[in-house]
Specification:
The protein has one domain. A hairpin with a 4-residue loop joins strand 3 and strand 4. The longest helix has 17 residues. The C terminus is likely disordered. 28% of the residues lie in helices and 25% in strands. It contains 3 helices and 8 strands, in the order E-E-E-E-H-H-H-E-E-E-E.
């Protein structure tokens, strides 16, 4: 991954935020795997998905600003998160010029919890989902494949 490579999210990845800027899930509609995201991961995923940040450099700056962490820490954590997304087929890196950030998109990240590195937790099915902060339980959401 190079700093200037454009990052493209998988179209078949459905994003649902459960607690504003604190907990969310991504459902890969192609393989029915789901992924839980913490607050820092949500900040990065929202920007990626909206096209507001399409490079590792832009995402690093967004993470640093949102949580008030050092650029060095933000870069390490962003790169690790992007690696996780890539390994799970949720993004791909393409050559070419990234588009310009969309100025019409506004991101308000008030009330963020204390910083923890972006986390993408993986599960293989949606038969039971238990989320850490909300204690939400979804049983049998998807049966049989």
């Amino acid at each position: 991954m190079q700093n200037n490579q454009k990052i493209v999210t998988k179209e078949q990845a459905s994003f649902t935020e459960l607690l504003d800027n604190q907990e969310a899930i991504i459902l890969d509609l192609e393989n029915l795997h789901y992924y839980t995201l913490n607050a820092a991961a949500i900040v990065l995923w929202k920007r990626l998905r909206a096209g507001a940040a399409q490079t590792a450099t832009a995402l690093t700056a967004a993470l640093s600003k949102a949580f008030g962490i050092s650029a060095e820490q933000a870069e390490l954590d962003t790169r690790e998160f992007l690696s996780q997304l890539s390994r799970n087929g949720l993004i791909e890196f393409v050559t070419g010029e990234p588009g310009s950030a969309s100025p019409a998109i506004s991101f308000a990240f008030e009330g963020l919890p204390a910083y923890a590195p972006p986390q993408l937790k993986v599960a293989n099915s949606l038969t039971k989902v238990v989320l850490s902060q909300s204690q939400t339980i979804v049983s049998g959401a998807i049966t049989g494949t």
